[in-house]
């Protein structure tokens, strides 16, 4: 596999893809960015045309149906993007001898564990979104046993898109108190940190030092949404006690949320790559970047 061939990043309009592209540019790696208007990953003809034109060495699939609640009533639509799309990319990668990195989710698990989910833990999604993302994982791993990578992530935030941190920054300035769920545990993950690991993993794949398979791309440590919000307030110089704990029952939604989304990170060391740092360290580094970004209503 020639190192001269560039990378292809799908879903290029999203938060994570933007940071992947920035990380590739910083490393001097040529890359093509394709958003959903440029490439429908579920369309075999369009996927084949994109591969014919760009002949990538590595594909990072950031394209996804991420509307978790909408997927409950539109599962077939979500499956087309989250299941059929990765399958088409995997088939093209097999034909063109390319590495595929599929971004997946903690929702493939049942969310009722009491210790971090290992990469090989049994999957048991409880939502339509989780089922469709699992279908994508299975398509990649089955089609590309030696060059398919699934990187599960969760609780993502970053610049250039709507996310929990941006929402808390906005609400801190207009709300005296906030009630935030305290019975869901996970690992807030900055897209910059995940993008760095995706690029390093792709480089390891090309060098033959990173084994194919499943990796967990989340920060270290764990917290609740309430604890996450309290830390955001603290970094803003606001009183964390203005964030008050509540339960998931207070915010009923069509799709069930995992109560426990903490993932283990053992496989990174097999690839010679350190796992992502603790979530609080990542948040501390991210806040100046996010505060410098124009907030909704202030631009």
From TrEMBL:
Endpoints of the signal sequence: none
Q: Which Pfam families match?
A: RmlD_sub_bind
* UniProt pathway annotation: Carbohydrate biosynthesis; dTDP-L-rhamnose biosynthesis
Tell me if Iron is a UniProt keyword of this record. Answer: no
Q: Which family does it belong to?
A: Belongs to the dTDP-4-dehydrorhamnose reductase family.
Q: Name the top EC class.
A: oxidoreductase
Record key words, sorted = NADP, Oxidoreductase
| Role this protein plays | Catalyzes the reduction of dTDP-6-deoxy-L-lyxo-4-hexulose to yield dTDP-L-rhamnose.
InterPro entries referenced in this protein's UniProt entry, alphabetically: dTDP_dehydrorham_reduct, NAD(P)-bd_dom_sf, RmlD-like-bd
Key word Oxidoreductase present in the record?
Answer: yes
Ranges for domain RmlD-like substrate binding come to 8-286
* Name of the protein: dTDP-4-dehydrorhamnose reductase
Q: What is its EC number?
A: 1.1.1.133
Q: Which GO terms describe its molecular function?
A: dTDP-4-dehydrorhamnose reductase activity
């Amino acid at each position: 596999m020639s190192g001269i061939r560039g990378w292809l990043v799908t879903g290029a309009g999203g938060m994570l893809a933007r940071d992947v592209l920035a990380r590739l540019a910083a490393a001097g790696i040529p890359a093509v960015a394709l958003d959903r208007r440029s490439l429908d990953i579920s369309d075999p003809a369009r996927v084949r045309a994109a591969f014919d034109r760009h002949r990538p060495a590595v594909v990072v699939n950031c394209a996804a149906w991420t509307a978790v609640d909408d997927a409950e009533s539109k599962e077939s639509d979500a499956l087309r993007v989250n299941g059929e799309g990765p399958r088409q990319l995997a088939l093209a990668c097999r034909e063109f001898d390319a590495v595929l990195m599929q971004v997946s989710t903690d929702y493939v698990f049942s969310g009722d564990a009491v210790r971090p989910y290992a990469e090989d833990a049994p999957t048991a999604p409880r939502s339509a979104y989780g089922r469709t993302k699992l279908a994508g994982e299975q398509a990649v791993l089955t089609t590309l046993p030696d060059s398919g990578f699934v990187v599960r992530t969760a609780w993502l935030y970053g610049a250039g898109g709507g996310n929990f941190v941006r929402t808390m920054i906005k609400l801190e300035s207009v709300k005296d108190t906030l009630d935030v769920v305290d019975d869901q545990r996970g690992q807030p993950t900055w897209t910059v940190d995940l993008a760095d690991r995706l690029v390093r993993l792709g480089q390891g794949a090309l060098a033959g030092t990173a084994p194919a398979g499943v990796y967990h791309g989340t920060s270290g440590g764990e917290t609740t949404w309430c604890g996450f919000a309290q830390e955001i307030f603290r970094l803003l110089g606001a009183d964390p006690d203005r964030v008050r704990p509540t339960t998931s029952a207070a915010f009923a939604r069509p799709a069930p949320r995992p109560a426990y989304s903490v993932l283990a990170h053992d496989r990174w060391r097999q690839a010679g790559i350190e796992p992502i740092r603790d979530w609080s360290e990542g948040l501390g580094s991210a806040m100046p970047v996010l505060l410098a970004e124009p907030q909704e209503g202030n631009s």
